[in-house]
Protein: Aspartate carbamoyltransferase
Organism: Muricoccus vinaceus
Amino acid sequence: HRHLLALQGLEPPYIAELLDLAESYALLNRGGKAQRDLLRGRTLINLFFEDSTRTRTSFELAGKRLGADVINMSVSTSSVNKGETLLDTAATLNAMQTDLLVIRHSQSGAPALLSQKVDAGVINAGDGTHEHPTQALLDALTIRRRKGTLENLTVAICGDVLHSRVARSNIHLLLAMNCRVRIVGPPTLIPAEAEALGVEVFHDMRAGLKDADVVMMLRLQKERMQGGLVPSAREFFRFYGLDAAKLRHAKPDAIVMHPGPMNRGVEIDSAVADDPARSVIGEQVEMGVAVRMAVLDVLSQNQRRNAR
Ligand code: CP
């Protein structure tokens, strides 16, 4: 594969290869020994048309730890503001012999479009409501570390699934790796195609969380609810916010995940988010660096192979 645009359709052995490599980077990172020359002389550009804390920072760290020249293009101060189109921006970056382009965009499909126009390997860092592949990879790595396997686990993905690219990427990955996937939320925030994807749909948290191994909470994406009904934070928390009482319906050793950014008191209670016995939110962030190192490693190796 030259690019990482989506997890839908990716072969399970390729996903497992990425996770295994990410695991080895996670161990090296913990030992402070991950400085390598693998990407020496290569250029990685972060092109984020939407805000980010975790994804952009961890791609920067990942690129630097592998020896790449990393440039964070600030879209808000770029010529995009003078009316330059996405494709003209891409052509400009292409002319600078960029090797890897990491893009986040509000339009679903923008990274795929870009990948047809540039020579660089393109990595989707989140496109609209479509996919966020590296997030699902880091989630899977975190689950595998905590549970020892992905096979036959029950994963409940809860909240605003409709607008969530994180949920879509997770659904594709987890089903490919033989997990049982449930999605839990109010009917207005569940995508119409949910059951066709092969997941079970629940509108009640207690039923959806019953005996789950993993509880993954999602943020209400108000910025994508233009014209739609925005639930009140208080009502949402009452019915769908994860607190200790609702979590009791999951398995006693169930882990709690959140891709971030969190809205405490809306989709998750602080006591649960900060409970070291259950919450793996910090480990998710840590695994983000390892997963992105693995993705950069594999894509750059594939580029070298194609160049031969
Ligand atoms: N999970 C995630 O994508 O976080 P950021 O928006 O901070 O990158």
In short: The mean pLDDT is 95. Strands lie at 43-48, 69-73, 100-105, 121-127, 154-158, 180-184, 200-202, 214-217, 255-257. Residues 95 and 105 are 21 Å apart (CA to CA).
